[in-house]
Each structure stands twice: as structure tokens, then as C-alpha cells.
What we know:
This protein has 314 residues and is α+β, with helices and mostly antiparallel strands. It is built from nine helices and 17 strands. A hairpin with a 2-residue loop joins strand 12 (205-211) and strand 13 (214-215).
Amino acid sequence: xxxxxxxxxxxxxxxxxxxxxxxxIKSLQNKSExxxxxxxxxxxxxxxxxxTVCNVRIGTLKKNEYAMEKKxxxxxxxxxxxxxxxxxxxxxxxxxxxxxxxxxEFQDTLILNSPSALLSFNEKILGYNLSxxxxxxxxxxxxxxxxxxxEKYKEIVLKPLNLMAGRGIIKxxxxxxxxIIIKEYLKKYKVAVAQKYLKVIKNGDNRIIIYNGIVEKKIxxxxxxEDDFRANIAFGGxxxxxxxxxxxxxxxxxxxxxxxxxxxxxAGVDMIGQYVTEINITSPTGIQQIGNGLSMKIANQLLxxxxxxxxxxx
Length: 314
């Protein structure tokens, strides 16, 4: 059985009824040895990367049942795979963690998603770069360019680059106070994504799951609540399960190939209408909501990926 290390946030803080990582662990646990890696314990000594791990077993999701035992320190290159599932913010602590994991890649340890890719790509910029067509966008901290975008389209959204789940995203209209809002936003976040506001959001924000280059045809369509424009479930958005539209499949297939090439095993592509707004490559969610046996599909592909990787290393 393969030894799979899961690097995630504290399990005590997780909602087992909705969390994607927990459902993947549950699907993995009868086919592999699953070990939780405690991220705060990760450290380098000489040329090795060590951390404290413990065996974990998930019980009934509705009851938040889990058991952890045999806590001990190991050289992480003894694991057959590390599945990285830590949530943003992408701060210095997060970047340092990835830099240490990147050294493990040099020691032929399989890490998914690849820390090299996570260090290279920003989720919101990657979404913009791979979208066809593209939303009118300004990325950076140039107040004048953002103000010009607002004056042209009358309504824009501002997004921080290092957060998740809709946090920090605001919508502003071209009014007298907008100049102050933009300047204060740039002062707080330093760098931002400014984009034309898409009114089509009322028809939903689509989350498309991609794993090992495979596109899941069932998608999660999230709708914003009446008092907000953000469709994130964390902000009270409702959702339905739909099928991906046929006209978007060529673009999503192209994105899937790009992600697989760069070592991004598991991702969530977000689309509003015809636009890709973000590609979540750090800790995408939605698989429990989508259902359709998706957690087992991902677990099986993960084990297949581990198998092919270690066969190629022999």
C-alpha cells in the first residue's frame, strides 16, 4: 500500500459535511496508508525535510468522526506522495512551506499539486491568462489604469491576489467616492485585480473540477444571495448541479492539458458566462456538493498517478 501524506489545515476546524479533502481521504484510506502532515512541524535539517505525521482514519462524515494515532517525526521523502491541500492566504509562511516542499521534488518525491507550479502561478492571473475570451482587466497597483477601467465600464470588481472564497472582493461604481475606495484598496492589498463587473453573474458562477487532466462533466453552479454579488457558498450562495455546456468543452480540455503538463493534479476552474475568472490550484472545493462518486474518482486517479510515477522512477 502506498503511503500518502495529506498536508492540510487543522482537521479540527474542518466541516466534514462539505470539505473536499476529507472526502478524498475517506476514499483513499482503504487503498493506502493515509498520514496527516502537521504543517507547523515542517522543517529542514541538513538536506532533508522533516515533519510530524500521524495516521488518520475518517469515520462518518455527518458526525465529523475521525481518529488520529501514532504521531511521529519522519523524513518526508519516505512518503510515496504528498497531497498538498493547505488553504490560502498566500503569505510568507505559505511560500516558505512551498519552497521546502519544492526541495522534496528535487529528491524525487511526488507532490500534488506541484509546489513549483503553485509558486509559479497565481490563481486569478492564471484564470485571466487562460480565458478565451478575456474579461477587460487591469492587474497591478496602478490607480490611474484602474480608474480608467472603471470610467469605461461604469462598474468593476476589485480582487486581492492572495485570498480565497470570495474574501476581499468588492464591487464599485463610477461615483465620486470611487477614487478614495480604489486608493484605500491598493493601500491595503498592495496589488489587485480589477475587472469589468459581469452582470451575467446572476445566472451563476460555474465551478468545474479537473483531476489528472480529466474534466468532470458535472459542475457546481453557484448563485449569489440577494444581498451580495459574490456567488461563493461561504457568503450564502445557493447552488445547483448542472452539466458543462458543450461549447465550453474545447477551452476546458485545453486548460486541463495545461494543468496536467505543469503538475497540477487537482484544480477548480471558475467561469462566469463564457469567461474563466479563476483557476483554483491551491485547495479547490465542491466535490462533495457535486457528488457523482467524484471523491472516489479523484482518489483512484491519485493512486494511478502515484503508481505511474514510481514505475517511471525505477
